[in-house]
Write a structure and sequence with these properties.
38% of the residues are buried. The protein starts with 9 loop residues before the first helix and ends in a 6-residue tail after the last helix. It has helices at residues 10-19, 35-45, 71-76, 94-102, 117-126, 136-144; strands at 22-26, 49-53, 61-62, 65-66, 83-86, 107-110, 129-131. The protein has 6 helices and 7 strands. It is of the alpha/beta class. β1, α2 and β2 form a beta-alpha-beta unit. It is globular and about 40 Å long. α4 packs parallel to α5. This is CoA-binding protein.
Length: 150
Amino acid sequence: MENTIDDRMPDLVIDILQHYRHIAVVGLSAKPRRPSRDVSAYMQEAGYDIIPINPVYAGQQILGKRVYATLADAQAAGEQIELVNVFRRSEQTPPIVDEAASAGASALWLQLGIANEETRERAQKAGLLFVQNRCIKIEHARFFGGLSII
C-alpha cells in the first residue's frame, strides 16, 4: 500500500487520526489568530496530545504545553511523537522528514497550502505515512466532528 493520500484514500486519513494521538506541531505560533494555533487548539480539545515545536518560543508554553526548539529536543525530553504536523513553507519541509523519522514519528502531515514533491518522496523512502495540502482540523471535523460528507 502506498503511503500517500489522494481523494481515493480517505481511509488513510481516518487511520492516522484514529491511531496517532501524539502530534508534534512544527511551526506552532503563540499568536492567537494564527492557523497553527487554531488548528492545534482544536486538535487538543478533541483529545490529542499537542507537542509545540518552534525555536522562537522554545522553553515557553503554548496551549499549556512546553515548546521545544526541535523534534529532537522534544524526543530527548521524553515526548512521544507519533505524527508531525507541519506549518512551514513548502520549500522548508524536506529536512523535516529526516527529523520526524529520527524522532520516531510514523506519519508526516503538511497543512493545507503546503506541498512538496521532494518531501513526499523522502517520506515514502523513510516509511512515513504522508499527507500534504490538507488541514488536519478540517479532516478531523469531516470524519469525526460532524461535518457533512456528501
